[in-house]
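Glucosamine-6-phosphate deaminase: structure, please.
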Amino acid sequence: VTVYGNQQQASVAVAGRIAALIRGKEAKGEKTVLGLATGVTPIGVYAELVRLHKEEGLSFKNVITFNLDEYYPMQAAAAQSYVTFMNENLFSHVDIDKSHVNIPDGTLSLDEVPAFCLEYEQKITALGGLDLQILGIGRTGHIGFNEPGSAPNSGTRLVTLDDLTRNDASRDFGGKSNVPTKAITMGVGTIFKAREIILMAWSLKKAPIVKKAVEGEISGEVPATYLQLSDHVEFVLDEAAASSL
Ligand code: GLP
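Here you go.
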């Protein structure tokens, strides 16, 4: 666990690590495979990466990205889609090759989803796995959209969203009834295979679930507790989110 004075400092530190990873790989002529997250939490990290691109020449030409999740069903162009989120917060502002961007496809028909999920896993594996996965945490203890009940070895799949998660998303959708009931998410097992995992959490609102995730009994009831089983996970917190530890 690393605690920073505030979320701005923490975000700059995480972005700095991502930039160092990209530059180190590039120096060796290798590509960087990043696992990315949405939500309010990583916005400061993306803003700092955009600044590093514009002001310090950080290039994303050799970066391949896989996003954790997407609502289902979801049109890519919708305001609430994670495609829109990633374009607005990162991809439209950097020099990433759009063919290197992977986000679960919320437009598929139900019978197309299983093959898509399998292919998503295979694509990550074929690239040698994720170098770094960044995560936020939902108040149910979900990582990605792995809600309570998710298995530790779960793969990319269609899931049903928890009621609390849909409540938390209702503001973005102008009412809970507009929030999709399902999502496509990387599994806990997919996340675990990343060579490095950074879970970020800011504010007092996240303090109770951070305490459970870091100190609680390992249980599928709080999927983030599975992270305790990994030796390559770091929780990056601001003082408020760490205040119950
Ligand atoms: C959503 C995302 C998660 C994210 C969580 C927390 O459920 N699917 O990946 O970690 O929200 O969101 P926020 O960072 O806005 O608190």
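Notes: The CA atoms of residues 139 and 209 lie 6 Å apart.
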